[in-house]
Amino acid sequence: MAKLSLEIITGERVLFEETGIDAVIAPGVIGELGILPNHAPLVTVLQPGELRVQREGNADEPFFVSGGFLEVHDDTVTVLADTAERGDEIDLERAEAARARAADRLRSEVDVDRARAQAAMQRSLMRIRIGERRARRRASQRGGDPPSR
Amino acid sequence: MATLREIRRRIRSVENTAKITNALQLVAASKMRRAQERALAARPYAEHMRAVLRNLATAHSGEDAEEGGAAHPLLQQREIREATVLLVTPDRGLAGGLIANLERHAGEIVLSPDRTGEVSMVPIGRKGRDYYARFDIPFRAEFTQLGDYPSLAQIRPISRVAIDDYIAGTVDQVLLVYAQFVSTANQKPTTVQILPVQPPETDGPAQEMPYIFEPSPQALLEELLPRYVETQLYQAILEAAASEQSARMVAMKNATDAANEMVEDLTLDYNKARQNQITAELLDIAGGVEALAG
After folding, report:
1. CB neighbours (10 Å) of residue B141?
2. Closest residue of A to B233, CA-based?
3. Backbone phi, then psi, for B211, in 5-degree steps?
4. How far is B230 from chain A (nearest CA, A)?
5. Taking Cα atoms as reference points, which of B276, B290, B251 lies closest to residue B32?
6. Which regions in chain B score pLDDT beneath 70?
7. Which residue from B76, B196, B164, B141 is spatially nearest to A113, judged by alpha carbons?
8. How far apart are CA A89 and CA A62, in angstroms?
């Protein structure tokens, strides 16, 4: 069975580069999309969200992408992300601070760039969601209680 | 001939200068290595971006012809009433001829007597700003203190300014002047046009399997072009940073070598002067003995 190879590239570095992947689930602008081997050539815009890497017999590997592009060609998936983080690299405190900041800005009456504040809000919420799920899973693997919230 | 003490003082002073230039050389060498790594790490993104844009342009050009060509604003060529030059220079000097070369290269564009239309600048880096502040050229914005390792987040406002001015129609062409990193010993001042965007050349015929574009080629262009501009700018600034450090390293190496050579020459002078003095003293004594004997 054919496998996929995946590269996640940000403007500053190559974050992830591996082969032998069974499926990639990505947050496309017109909905989440799953890419399996032998996919037709495709270029799509991504929205802020979770990108998951699936390998047989392994737990999904989550990444946060804040938007960008995804290209599929000859079983090679290339993600050109504006920014991207591994699920376990997410800084929850920072994401929470960003969420609070965006909420403040959206509440205030002064002239703000609402679209930008909303985008920031969406990004921080996604980060928090991925980061927390990750933290919970790790806690349950250790046999501890999931962090309450 | 200078006295012994004067020569000795000069030797010590030159030796101290050599110590400083040597330290600067070592610092520049390590910064250069890191700057080069960063420029290299950012390359895959730029290359993929170019590939995607190329595919998109190929697919899009067919449709354009049918629709009568409603290209994206950032691709539109206009009559050039005002051009703006983004000049990337270091913040600090001691980089040999690099800065003067960059300034001269930019001058060929902005100070050219046979230029038609207005010209403005956006200096990026202190040296270029200070130099061109003396001329009668308006600055649309200025960016300094980007540091030795500029990040993408620092570059975004710069590309914002360029894109906004272009879309608003106040600027009809955006050129970028920076020091291309050819090798440690060679940095070439280069001009590239970043707006209107010139899509990369398509090589060979279209692919046998056409791409699916989601949501649509137009929407993709909309998202892609601003990032393409940003990437070009970021790449150029990273290369400029590597160029700055290597130019400084070479300049400081030359300075250290020159200082060491000078110390050798002065030491020779010093020994000669010392020998002369001893000879003179001996002659004095011999003369005195002879006078006593006579």
Report:
1. 17
2. A11
3. -75, 150
4. 9
5. B251
6. 1-2, 59-71, 202-209, 294
7. B164
8. 10
Q: Cα–Cα distance between B126 and B130 in angstroms, integer?
A: 6
Chain A closest-CA separation from residue B43 CA (Å): 8
In which band, very low, low, confident or very high, does the pLDDT at A149 lie, cut at 50, 70 and 90? very low
By DSSP bridging, strand A49-54 and strand A76-81 are unpaired
Residue with tokens 């998936």: A77
- Buried b / exposed e along A92-117 (16+ C-beta atoms within 10 A): eeebeebbeebeebeeeeeeeeeeeb
Torsion of CA B127, B234, B118, B112, to 10 degrees: 60
Residue from B36, B38, B52 to probe the interface with A (highest A Cβ count within 10 Å): B52
Contact state of B44 with A7 under an 8 Å Cβ cutoff: yes
**Residue B65: what pLDDT?**
44
* Closest to A81 (Cα-Cα) out of A3, A9, A22: A9
A45 touches chain B (CB under 8 A): yes
Between chains, do B42 and A69 touch, taking CB under 8 Å as contact?
no
Tell me whether residues A12 and B214 touch, CB distance under 8 A. no
Please give the ipTM for the structure prediction. 0.76
Helix locations, chain B, DSSP H = 4-41, 43-67, 98-110, 126-132, 152-168, 217-293
Q: Which two tokens stand for residue B126?
A: 């202190």
DSSP state of A113: -
* CA-CA-CA-CA dihedral for B193, B199, B205, B207, to nearest 10: 140
The whole-angstrom separation of Cα B235 and Cα B41 is 10
pLDDT at B53: 87
Closest CA to A80 of A5, A3, A4, A16: A16
User: Within 10 A of B259 (CB to CB), how many other CB atoms are there?
Assistant: 19
**What's the pTM value of the predicted model, to 2 decimals?**
0.83
pLDDT at A70: 94
pLDDT in tens, A55-112: 988 888 889 998 899 999 889 999 999 888 887 778 888 888 888 888 888 887 666 6
